[in-house]
Design brief:
The protein has helices at residues 3-25, 33-37, 43-55, 64-70, 74-85, 92-114, 117-162, 167-177, 182-194, 199-210, 213-228, 232-281, 287-291, 293-317. The protein is mostly helical. The longest helix is centred in the last third of the chain and has 50 residues, at 232-281. It is elongated and about 75 Å long. It has a domain at 147-247: Receptor-associated Protein. Helix 3 packs across helix 5, helix 5 (74-85) crosses helix 7 and helix 9 runs antiparallel to helix 10.
């Protein structure tokens, strides 16, 4: 069989395997039990409600049949929610197209550089996962930025409440005076309230989108004030002080564990990079690893050890404050 044809078939198989794994594991709940116990809309309701901003750009859905078939499934809603958390106004179908294009680009580049279809399959699978990893990292950076902005936003909101403003008017002050991403989230809450959604449900949607423990405290205080009353400005001041301390401690933890994170990245990237370089410099040198039974067993063992090392390092660096 032609090597290029074999590489394409292998890339399609890798793509199908990854999609199947996503469909299997996407059914597991990704929101903590605390968020599930918080009153408000479910993640599916938030996804369907927040799909409108992404579709307001005038772009036609490139895969309407696929979107209609998968809409409402756990996998599709999970992708849409991650896109919202990353601040990307894309449909899941558009994100899927980007991933497929990245897969074929990686497949062709890997095969042309190394001359071996197996490396084309590997680089194709890597290209398929890169957009998803970028989306997750972008969502994490946005979440970190939102958390760092939260104390200042709470101070501003508390001052607005002390001045006699209503809660929604305080949201408008935060939206007009703060920078993204927190201004975008409060603006979305205001938009939902303006179209008839209750403030409690709008805040629940904000909590589901952000998936933040710090914001959970703020939303719980606001929902309590809306239902039972109380001195919300004083509560927000106390929460802002606590969040500032948590952000300071998280910064110290990140600085102390940066070496471990870099070690995990090198652990995964270096063997793959060296294999690609060796195959480009000396084609055929690594053929025994992929053609002999002992070589295949060595590759499987090395992959298992790499995965085990990454999991151990991740567990060691997972410090909850």
């Amino acid at each position: 069989m032609d090597p290029l044809t074999l590489a394409v078939i292998g890339g399609v198989l890798v793509f199908g395997l990854i999609v199947a794994m996503l469909l299997v594991f996407a059914g597991n709940p990704s929101v903590s039990e605390r968020l599930m116990d918080t009153p408000g809309p479910t993640s599916q309701e938030v996804v369907h409600r927040d799909r409108l901003p992404a579709e307001s750009g005038g772009r036609a859905d490139p895969l309407p049949q696929l979107s209609e078939a998968l809409r409402g499934t756990a996998f599709w809603d999970d992708v849409q929610m991650n896109l919202l958390r990353a601040g990307l106004l894309l449909r899941p179908s558009e994100a899927l197209i980007i991933s497929v294009l990245a897969m074929f680009a990686g497949l062709i580049i890997g095969w042309l550089v190394t001359g071996q279809p197996i490396f084309g399959v590997l680089t194709g699978g890597l290209g398929l996962t890169i957009p998803y990893v970028v989306m997750i990292q972008r969502a994490a950076r946005r979440q970190s930025a939102l958390t760092s902005q939260l104390p200042d936003a709470l101070d501003m909101l508390s001052s607005a409440l002390r001045s006699g403003y209503a809660l929604t008017r305080g949201f408008q002050v935060v939206h007009s005076q703060m920078h993204p991403p927190i201004s975008e989230e409060f603006h979305r809450v205001l938009q939902e309230v303006q179209v008839g959604i209750s403030v409690t449900d709008a805040l629940g949607g904000l909590l589901t989108r952000s998936k933040s423990y710090d914001l959970e405290l703020v939303v719980a205080a606001m929902q309590t004030q809306l239902t039972m009353g109380g001195n919300l400005s004083e509560v927000l001041d106390n929460i802002a002080g606590m969040i500032r301390e948590r952000v300071r401690l998280q910064g110290e933890i990140d600085a102390a564990t940066s070496e471990g994170r870099l070690s995990a990245i090198i652990l995964v990237a270096m063997p793959i990079a060296m294999a690609v370089i060796i195959s480009a410099v000396s084609p055929g040198y690594l053929n025994p690893l992929f053609q002999e039974r002992v070589g295949i067993m060595m590759l499987l063992g090395a992959g298992a050890l790499m995965l085990m090392g990454v999991l151990i390092i991740r567990k060691l660096l997972d410090i909850d404050i």
